[in-house]
Amino acid sequence: MKRQLLLTSTTMVGIILVGNFGGVTKTVAQTSNNQEVTINFQGRVGKQPFECGKTYTLGKPATKVTPDDFRFYVSDIALIDNNGKSIPVNLTQDGKWQYQNVALLDFENKSGGCANGTVETRNQIVGTIPKGNYQGLQFTLGLPFNLNHADSVIAPSPLNLTSLWWNWLFGYKFARLDWKTQTHNSQVKHGEKSEKAQGFPIHLGSTGCQSIEGSQSPSTCSNLNTSKVIFTKFDVSKNVVIADIAALIGNTNLTINKKNTPPGCMSSPDDSDCNVIMTNFGLPFNGKAAAKQKFFRVE
């Protein structure tokens, strides 16, 4: 069978297949009904771009902090057509940043305090979608349950980063935003109502996951902690998704840490240090219903 490309000056119209089909020579035209799309993201701290090693003033009271990490997974990316229907984006399987319906966005570059990260960064999602007119964007912050509890040692990229994996029960860190504060007082002792914070890492992930044995993947998690984000107005050719750390932290006090809890916010439902953060992720938390997320916006 001969294969011949039929091209115009700017686009590929289709593929012409010439061959013998049951003793009859036929010419069959194959055309593509898909279009490539690139969805751009930016990491910000308020109006400032995110940079490893840079000092920012965040939280309430205002606290000087320097970043150690800024990465997150998104999944189930879709564009919304003019009829309000969500059309899934078929992600390019690049063997590095995207796998199945999951993409990793990475704004740290291993410089400054970002020692746990990677030199390479990633600020876009690439894929294809049926040709048409689209007016909105939809995605989920986090991983689907069937991929969340994979073994990072043998998982394909970008699920092979051990720095974004907790353990069998909790699975992956859907988002990792680590900070060092400049107000740490090593003289403050444990046992006080609250403790001075040496840093304020934010690790978003599932909690309350149940497994028959510790080495087996859980069958359920009481708190999935995946947040669905919908923008009814989004033009892929013009708009960018802003992930704003300042909007996420909001009124969080970064200088203290609840007694007998891990530093910062580790998504535990009994950690009051997470109250504002989980709400701003758009998640129900500690008996409080989910509110509109504030972490992402469109520009």
Automatic annotation (TrEMBL):
UniProt domain Copper-binding protein MbnP-like: residue ranges: 35-267
Species of the source: Anabaena cylindrica (strain ATCC 27899 / PCC 7122)
A Pfam match: MbnP
Lineage, top ranks: Bacteria, Bacillati, Cyanobacteriota, Cyanophyceae, Nostocales
Identification of the protein by name: Copper-binding protein MbnP-like domain-containing protein
